[in-house]
UniProtKB/TrEMBL annotation:
Residues 1-86 form the DDE-1 domain. The lineage of its organism: Eukaryota, Sar, Stramenopiles, Oomycota, Peronosporomycetes. This is Tigger transposable elementderived protein 6. InterPro entries: CenT-Element_Derived, DDE_SF_endonuclease_dom. One of its GO terms (cellular component) is nucleus. PANTHER family: PROTEIN PDC2 (PTHR19303:SF73), TRANSPOSON (PTHR19303). One of its GO terms (molecular function) is DNA binding. Pfam families: DDE_1.
Length: 103
């Protein structure tokens, strides 16, 4: 997400909350795009979560982080087995380049 998209969405949220006469607290992580500079928000208060707390404060992200790590590890293992089966290299982990399609 870019800063401009975030700020546009934030302004629309503030406008919507103002129309409903509601005040809300929005908790965001420390992504560089999450900035409110130059915006005047009347009905949305934005607070940033402390750094490196995603897995503790956003438990739903734990599942995503786990799945990504497992996927990367799985692809590394498949690549290592391919290298061993092909007999092209003694050490399948010697290459410093990520296999194509790793991510």
């Amino acid at each position: 997400m870019t800063t401009s998209i975030y700020q546009l969405w934030l302004q629309e949220l503030d406008s919507s909350m103002r129309a409903e006469d509601r005040h809300v607290l929005l908790l965001v992580d420390n992504a560089s795009s999450h900035t409110e500079e130059g915006l005047t928000l009347t009905n949305v208060r934005v607070e940033k979560l402390p750094p490196n707390t995603t897995s503790k404060l956003q438990p739903l992200d734990q599942g995503i982080i786990y799945c990504v790590k497992r996927s990367v590890l799985n692809k590394k293992m498949i690549r290592a087995l391919e290298v061993i089966d092909d007999g092209t290299d003694d050490n399948p982990y010697k290459s410093k380049h990520a296999p194509s399609g790793l991510y």
